[in-house]
Every structure is written in structure tokens, then in C-alpha cells.
Amino acid sequence: MNKDTVIIIAASAILNPKEIKPYDNISVNYSVYLNTLLYSNWLEIFKNIGEQYEIIALLSEIDREFLPKYFIPPEIQQIFYKETPLKNLTDFLNKQSSVINSKTLVLFYNSMGIKQSDISRVFNLNQIEESSIIIGRSVRGNIVFACTYGLDKDIFDPLLIINRKYDEYLSLISSKDIFIHTLDNFLSIDDFEDIKKLYIELSKKESLSYCSQNMHESFNDLFIEYKELLNV
After folding, report:
1. What is the CATH number of the domain that holds 214?
2. Residue 77 CB burial class (10 angstroms; 0-12, 13-18, ≥19)
3. How many domains are there within the chain?
4. Alpha-carbon separation of residue 211 from 4, 18, 181, 215 (angstroms)
5. Per-residue pLDDT tens digits for 168-182
6. Which of 113, 169, 185, 216 has its CA 20 to 30 A from that of 140?
7. 98: confidence class by pLDDT, cuts 50, 70, 90
């Protein structure tokens, strides 16, 4: 029996300082640091529950030589793509040796606020006997994850084409005969306003359910550097 699949996606370069798009008000090096922390947070979450799932880390070839040592745990499959930014997600993944034929959660690396219980709920909502998609939406209307059965090109590729905008995405898949279930109020860290929201959310005790104490301390190194701007 196939395990459910989780694909952690960075749809463009996030670690190569010469290729990334820095966040507003944040230096290139600290932008790389933040991206590293965001991706690392997911790797840590799935290190604890990963044996339940087939985990794939999807990264740009441009970032390969900038991966920190031991960044990707050995139990997680690494796949690098050459097309930048990534658009043809399903065509690329279907060419890989590992054929994905299970419930599949596509999870964007810069998402936060998603607990282990949320991940279990998403897979439980995805019923194989009916065509359905479970979408996670950020507080600012960006898609942070999508889960359905297998890799349907008409379902997953539009996520990247419209840059994960929820309303635009629904318009693109409106012709599909599919049940849509949306879960709300997650974070997508796309700009400095989102970093400020993250700063606030990680100050709350409940954030430990999706970001460990060790990860908190790492994020604090960034927050201390930009504390004056974050408190405006």
C-alpha cells in the first residue's frame, strides 16, 4: 500500500544569494537565512512524523551547491529541477523514477502555522472515492498547500501559473468536477508585512505546535537584527 506523499516545494531559487529575490527591508544574506529557516521548519516537522508519509524535497538546481550540510535528512528524497521558476510541476514530477500514485500534499516551503494535526486532517478530508481538493489559504489570500489524489496536471500546475493566488486559482479550476474544501488562516511569508505577522505569531505560546523551541531561537536571530522595523 502506497504511503501518502508530501512534496515541499520551493518554486524558485531560495538559497543562492546571487539568484534569490530578497525580501523588502531585508538584506540578501538574511533573506537566504529566512528561507533556510522556513524550509528547515518543515523538514523538522516531517522528521518527527515522516515515516507516515513519502516526503519529497523539491528545490531548484540553482540552490544545490548552496544547501547547508545535512540540510535534507537522508530519509527525505531530494529532487532538483532546472526550469526556473518552476511552472510544469506535474510533467516534471511524472518524469522522476518515483511515480506518485497516492494522496498528494503539495506544500509551499514559506508557509507557517500548519500543525501536525492539520496535516492529518487534510489527508483525512481527501477521500479517494470522490474527486476532491483540500486547499490551505493564508490570511492574505495565498495558497499555502493543496492536497488531492495523485498528480492531476489541471489541478497542480495552475498553482504556480497564478502565483498561488486563491481567487485566481478557483477561476482556473472552475470547470473541473471536483469538491473543494478550504482551510483558512495560515501564513505565507512572501514579503516584509508577512515577516511582521510571523514575528507576532511566533511570540504566542501556541506557535510551539508548528515551530519548535530550537526553531524559535533561530528565528529570533533574524528578528533581533530587524527589531526596530518589526515593531513599527
Report:
1. 3.90.550.10
2. middle
3. 1
4. 23, 29, 25, 6
5. 999 988 888 888 999
6. 216
7. low
